[in-house]
Design goal:
alpha/beta, Immunoglobulin-like, four-stranded mixed beta sheet, 9 strands, globular, binds copper (II) ion
Length: 122
C-alpha cells in the first residue's frame, strides 16, 4: 500500500514535470536564438566628407565594427586619444575598427580638430 502510494506520487511528479521540461527546452531554444542574433556582428560606415563625419554620432553593439571611409579631398583621422587612432586615412581609403568595450567615445580628426564624432558602444 505504501509502495503503491509512493509510485502514484512519482507518476504525478513525472506528469507535472513534463510540461516544465518542455518550457525549459523552449526557453533554452529562445536563449540560443538570442545569443546567435547578438553574436552576428554588423559593420557600420562613417563617411568623412566636407571635413565632417557622417553620421556625427553612431550607436553600435559590442562586437560590431566601424569603417571610416574617406570621401573627402584630403586625408583625415579618426582618433579617440588613448582608445583608438586610425592614423592618416588617405583620400579614397578606409579604416576599420572594432570597439573593445562598452562606452561612449568622443573622437576627432587630428588634422582638423573641429571634426568631431561620437561612438556609443552598447
Ligand atoms: Cu581631417
Amino acid at each position: 500500500m505504501i509502495a503503491r502510494t509512493f509510485s502514484m506520487t512519482a507518476d504525478g511528479l513525472r506528469r507535472a514535470a513534463a510540461p516544465l521540461r518542455l518550457a525549459h527546452l523552449l526557453a533554452l531554444a529562445s536563449f540560443v536564438g538570442l545569443t546567435v542574433a547578438a553574436a552576428t556582428p554588423v559593420t557600420h560606415t562613417v563617411v568623412m566628407k566636407a571635413t565632417s563625419f557622417a553620421p556625427l554620432t553612431l550607436t553600435l553593439k559590442l562586437g560590431d565594427a566601424v569603417v571610416w571611409r574617406n570621401d573627402d579631398f584630403f586625408p583625415h583621422t579618426a582618433t579617440a586619444p588613448g582608445i583608438f587612432d586610425s592614423g592618416s586615412i588617405a583620400v579614397g581609403a578606409s579604416w576599420k575598427y572594432q570597439p573593445k568595450a562598452v562606452g561612449e567615445y568622443a573622437y576627432i580628426c587630428t588634422f582638423h580638430p573641429n571634426m568631431k564624432g561620437i561612438l556609443t558602444v552598447e
